[in-house]
Amino acid sequence: MKKIKWIVPIIMIMMVMAAGCGSDTSAEESAEEQSADEGAQSDAIRDDKETSDVETEAGQMSAASLDPKEQLKTDIAGMRITFRFDEAEEVLNGEEIAGWLTDLPDGSISVNEAPAKEYVASLAKKYDTFGQTRSFTTHAGETINVSGGDYGYWMDRVSTRQELIDQIMTGQSAELTPVYYGTASKYGSDDIGTTYVEINLEDQHLWVYQDGSVINESDFVSGGLFKGNNTPDGTYAITYKERDATLVGQGYESSVKYWMPFNGNIGMHDASWRSAFGGHIYYMNGSHGCINLPSEKAKEIFDQVEKGEPVVVYGGITKEQAAATLSLDEKIQAAQKGYIAMTPELQAKIYEQQGLDPATAAAQAQAQQLLQQQMEALAQQQAALAEAAQNAGQ
User: Fold this and answer.
1) Both 348 and 366 in a single domain?
2) Band of residue 358 on the pLDDT scale cut at 50, 70, 90
3) Residue 171 structural domain
4) Is 331 domain-assigned?
5) I need a surface site. Which of 11, 106, 172, 261 has the fewest CB within 10 A?
6) Whole-prediction pTM value?
7) What is the 3-state secondary structure (H, E, C) of 193-212?
């Protein structure tokens, strides 16, 4: 009996120990599995890092393998340069530009100017309007062609080409604006727009348009036609505006309050020394080329127009056309001042005004005409003899 009592506790102790040993084995297995997972994760991270490092090194090696010249060529091949003309645009892509590149002896590259020059010239030819004859609808609704003047888009080709080349050498895409000597209200054949000054020389009247509507108008006196100071036709732009200016020219000096030049030293201004405007005043008593306005009208227009605004001048006529519109008294006056030829008919009328009867006046006018012709022939003969003597002396 005593022997059995000892065996039972021993068996129980061994069972407890066996159970305890089983528990410890399971924990160890779990720990080992966790350790294995963590190791696998570390290996994966290490592998990813090593892959990333390899790729980075490869990229660095690839970048390092491109010298600056090749890198710039690559950049240029992918660039895009845009020139915008209102709604229209001209795009120059890298593929075309790449054909303009030239390798230099020092290992660098440059842009061949010949294709760049040709490209800029094509833009100017397509979009420049400077010097063009324009179709213009007058205030009276008549469609006319207006030639002359310096208004319109006029591209500075040299400066524009240089800006294009400079941009190409950066390798960066960009939107460029051409360099211009002169601009207009908008691109296209109808570059005048709807805000402008219309000057009709034949009618001696002008209209100021703003956004398509007439906001002012006035009679004026333009350049003296018979004196050879006629105001030229053409489309121009107001150069600037100036208050209290002094206009100086050959044989004259005039102080004006409102000066608006548009064609060199020709412009619109007040003419306080005049009491009448319009009509045929400009035939014999015109300005030196400017548009003379009543003082109050000049003030109003000065406040209404802006620098760069188009000025359309048309309707200029020749001296012969003007003479044909003169009355008899105006023709006599013009002939006496030497503006037109003194004909026997005009001379006879002058004699009649002096009291001679028509028949006597006509005969005397014919005799004077004959005498004048003889004097002119004699003068020509004397000039020819003098020239012959001078040639003989040489």
Assistant:
1) yes
2) confident
3) 70-130+150-182
4) no
5) 106
6) 0.73
7) CCCEEEEECCCCEEEEEECC
